[in-house]
Amino acid sequence: MTIPKGKAQRLTRRDALKTLGAATAAGLGSACFSRRAHGAATARRPNILFILTDDHRWDHLGFCGHPFLQTPHLDRLAAEGLNFANAFVVTSLCSPSRATFLTGMYAHRHGVKNNLTPWQDSNVTFLELLKDAGYDTAFIGKWHMPGGLPDPRGVDLFVSFTAQGGQGQYFNCPLVVNGKEEPSRKAYLTEELTDRTLEFLQAKRDRPFCIFLAHKAAHHQFLPPPDLAGMYDGVPLNLPKETDLWIGSTNGMMFEGTLGPISWLYRNYCETLTATDREVGRLLDALDEMGVADDTLVVYAGDNGFFWGEHRLVDKRWAYEESIRIPFIVRYPRRIPKAGTREQMIINPDLAPTLLELAGLPIPENIEGRSFVPLLGSATAPGRDAWLYEYFRDYPYNVPQHDAVRTRTHKYIEYEGRRPAELYDLVNDPKEKTNLIGTDQGAALRNTLKPRLDELRAGTG
Length: 461
Known about the structure:
globular; about 15% strand; 11-stranded mixed β-sheet; Alkaline Phosphatase, subunit A; about 30% helix
């Protein structure tokens, strides 16, 4: 894949703050950025709680009709807000996806192309922009981007970990808190990160807060807390027909950490998700008790999906729906007049500009995402008609570099090397089992989709 030279440029801190300052001087409301007038600004701007989970695929939620998975608190969040049923990541891999959420940019621009290429300190995050505009900010949880833990600008509290190469460990995970090592006070990591989040959001303040809470869950090893271990033993799993017990140790999948019977791993995965849901409930209860639920924007999302046997994979990375589609739930009573579902497509670069707009801030030009604020108040507001997926080689995984264009009805994928292209009709073939390449229908569709893919590669957005 060739990216135009202009696309390789990153938004610098100076450029971002220059944009912010220019907009302020032009009359966006200097009081919004003045500590002296902070009380008035707080009344207009939301608190923000963004909860990011790992490997949580879009359809693994109780309200989505999963046959046994219990997620009552996420079900409540969706019932009180909006479920974005067609939300996607533009790179289905942990490190690039996290960097994209933070920056609003694609991997080819922010530079974290896989789990090996380091985070660049020149990148500007939405946390930094919100901090400069008067927010109290925190990043709590899984950083997991190459180059070690940063000293991030614009973050009042930075809690993360370096165990297991930055993946963290479910039990007794040592933490790094504002640069200093501390032991975990709770045995189970998901509970510990929730405790740290509660302490920050419950602190006395006269400014709005923005918290980026990034869980390890539900990444492998898929370990639930002791009291939930075994809660799904014996339930019918309804895994795909192409799944067999040992698919996780075939076709190069051993690097995915899925050695062992898939039935056992899958039950653990679902129990780990239920444990995460319970911690979401603690946060929602705290917002209610503080009386700030109506003034707080809560967003729940996954960093990518996960295959459980579909396409004979136990993995992510590939451009198929189970990998690229994520849960994405938004609750903000002040701006969402009616709860429900949004079918329009959104992508993870869209988070940053949405948060900035809701906070009354300008959106820097180099951000490639688009604010979905219009969708909060309207079920008929236009969404994306197509977007670019990109994947860069990630040693030692045997997944070729590839790009794809995903429209509302079709998907076209091109691979580097000898692997042939793929094209799917997502309306009539939602499981992507029939590649239309080589058919008359496929030839006609390719004449439209390939130019669109090339256009997105050149322009991105």
